[in-house]
């Protein structure tokens, strides 16, 4: 694809040194070596169309070489070089939606990240938030290059140590700045450069030998009065309240699910389909308890007459142990298949004791499918479940050990699971809440 001309070149400066030719992009503090055809194209592109440039230079150079040079300039434009898509954004597009907020999104993962096999709730929650914001705001998402994704989302080339890119951000008058996670302290310095409110999500309050909470406290120390933390449950707010003087900076915004995707289906049909998919006919005619990512085979050992169905990206330490025969391990499922799998569960068991469990998106997805959960009383899990499941006692550690924030007895979890399986009326009533 050729460079679309005319293009402004007031930010470019051409110069020669010895027998070599260069162009300096003054807006990006960048110098590139060019050939004689590109040199002449840069002379013509402010006043002539691409076709006119090909016609004019084709009289002097091979036409194919001229077209190839325009193609190379178009490639550089896509990479944010010389002719930046971000810098030359269409004014018409800006004026069509003046009512939209303008938000800068700071994230390390690409905008177009595929979450089909995402196992962590954080990446899914952030992806869903960005997709929802596109309806109400114009988003500039940092990345490797300038790229227009859709009418509401512009990718912009940015690295923290790139001074010219930083100057562009400072000149854009954003209404707000949204981070992907508080754990990325690489963006901390931008608090002193961009005069707009920063919204910093805390998805994982604890874990990783206190690294999570220490990073959150670094943000807290640097924040201005108009910046804020976004947290999914009050448990995160209360945890940080032990260390900070102003809990009002922590705003609780729960995660959500798409009820068009996660909703109750015919349970027997779901069991039949999953049984066929996994070549496990026992699923179709037996009580089924589900595990997602967080699992505890010891619970399955205590209920040998019940089948436990688990899907997880890795078995961790259990890969080196003999699992009970009533624990069926399914391969990691794409997200579009999760609702069908969840609907095959009679009960969802979530025995997580890791410090990152501020919410539990998989827990909410199971509840949206009408499956009652059993969870330990830890961090944000009781807030999410409310009265729609069973909450069992757990021992929370005063100081986390690695990423573990406590422990829960497999006997207690197994008893709660069995209570729901043997009381169909109570189980169905909880599933309808």
Strand order of the largest sheet: 6-7-5-4-8-9-10-11
Q: Could you tell me the number of beta strands?
A: 19
Q: Supply the number of structural domains.
A: 3
Radius of gyration: 28 Å
Tell me the structural class: alpha/beta
Helix content: 25-40%
3D shape: elongated
How would you describe this structure to a colleague?
There is one protein chain. With 433 residues, the protein is α/β, with parallel strands linked by helices. It folds into three domains: 12-78, no CATH class; 91-252, 3-Layer(aba) Sandwich (Rossmann fold); 267-431, Glycogen Phosphorylase B (Rossmann fold, 3-Layer(aba) Sandwich). Helices cover 33% and strands 20% of the residues. It contains 16 helices and 19 strands. It has helices at residues 36-44, 50-57, 63-78, 91-96, 121-133, 163-170, 211-222, 234-240, 267-278, 282-285, 297-302, 335-343, 361-368, 381-385, 410-422, 424-431; strands spanning 12-17, 20-25, 30-34, 101-106, 137-143, 147-148, 153-157, 176-179, 198-201, 228-231, 250-252, 288-292, 307-311, 327-330, 347-349, 373-376, 390-392, 395-401, 404-407. Helix 2 runs antiparallel to helix 3 and helix 9 packs across helix 12 (335-343). The radius of gyration is 28 Å and the shape is elongated.
